[in-house]
Amino acid sequence: MNDELFNALLESVQQADGIIQGKAKPARLTAFAEPEVKAIRAKTGLTQERFATVVGVSKRTLENWEQGRRHPTGPARALLKILDADPKYALKALQG
């Protein structure tokens, strides 16, 4: 690695460290809206128990999502986005 590339990399790591420590502000932030789980479930017409089964989580987890105590992440979040966009087709695909 040449010195110029190393110095650029070192500078970016130092900038990241400053942001993490609160000494600097990030150049940009990317925020994603939380899925409205209860509204998405309502679009499907399913009960909490059935919707939880389809999504692959416990009923308790679904209740926590709907009440805002917890938030879906990763694949569950992606699946909710698909269910929100086209509930009829998504359910058909998920139920075989």
From TrEMBL:
Keywords: DNA-binding, Transcription, Transcription regulation. Residues 37-90 form the HTH cro/C1-type domain. NCBIfam families: NadS. One of its GO terms (molecular function) is DNA binding. Pfam families: HTH_3. This is Helix-turn-helix domain-containing protein. InterPro entries: Cro/C1-type_HTH, HTH-type_reg/antitoxin, Lambda_DNA-bd_dom_sf, NadS-like. It comes from the Bacteria.
